[in-house]
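TL;DR need structure tokens for one chain.
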Amino acid sequence: MVLWMDGFHIVQISFMILARQVSSSQQDVCSLDSCISTNASSKEFVDHCMLTAGNQMKGHCCFRPSSDQVTGIDLSYCNLKNIKSLLHPMTNVMRLNLTHNPNLTYENTSFVGLTKLKMLILDKSVDCPGQWHWFNTTWKPWKLAEYEKHTVRCLNQTDTCGQLKEFNYTCPAHSECENNGPGSFSCRCEHGWGGYRCMRKTNHDVALTISASITGATLFLSVLLWATQRRHVQF
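>> reply
TL;DR here they are.
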């Protein structure tokens, strides 16, 4: 992972292998012992989980046994402080509740990889993640934010790659843009290409991904420098 800063912009670029293995992280998330299990929020979450035939509750998670996937997580009242990369293995999650964690802080990178996330429920005092500003334009990575008395629901992610095309941004040659969670994207090397900016031919499908989550005042300069200044890139 590389962080480059010029005083106005921060570009965070991580190089990851796409093939992910389901580790003990899934079990850890579903069985956090700091959570209070009996509350109204959990009941609403359970009821929603059971609307889909075959779903089961597994600790704090809505679990689909037929596909061995966690599709929902309720971490409300869990005394969370910083989720960091806690959710990264949970790539099939569509519904996530993080309310009633008054000390919770997060980074936009905390939600990288959650491409299927359709509903994120947060305390009203917290902003929906993934926002960035481009000159006088603020691009919101969620199609809708529903504010209730104490919570905000971030609903349906916008198309990050589609939005970037409007700013005439394209991934390097021999790579394709892929949405990679709220406000995040990846430039995935095509089959047969790898290395720095996917410029090296290879006989192996290395599936190396250049992932970028951008924050700061300006997208344009950040992306331009990321794409052109090799000296800021490390492996």
